[in-house]
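Catalogue entry: protein
Contents: sequence, fold tokens
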Amino acid sequence: MNKEELIQKVKDLIGEGNVEAAQKFVEEHKDDLGDFADKAKDMITNFNPDEFSEKAKHAFSDAKDAANADGLVDKIKDLFGKDNK
């Protein structure tokens, strides 16, 4: 794995909530990660699962709203000053 792939793996593990696996991965690959190893350790230490969960809920809600075609049509109509009837 190259450095970018290693970094992505750490981010993926943290994003999945696998904090212990991320810590172990960073420790096993600290030489390959170089300067990022310290940043990764900080990310792991400061990981807040409740905050992550809340952000994920908002992201999915925003995606659901964006996928709603009716809402999109209404917004486009508003841009052109058309009445929503």
